[in-house]
Design a protein that fits this description.
The protein is mainly β. It contains one helix and three strands, in the order ββαβ.
Length: 47
């Protein structure tokens, strides 16, 4: 089980995702559930 962290570039909300990114539909450019901003994937936990 891989863990991926995603972070919103606008409000800074970080989310921890498990499993494959395709299953979860999480990709760079997705919208933040908190503010609607752009989400980026944090490779190795940092970017």
């Amino acid at each position: 089980m891989s863990i991926t962290y995603v972070k919103c570039t606008d409000c800074g909300l970080m989310q921890q995702k498990t499993g494959s990114l395709k299953e979860m539909g999480v990709l760079d450019g997705n919208n933040c559930p908190n503010c609607g901003g752009e989400i980026v994937i944090l490779h190795n936990g940092f970017k």
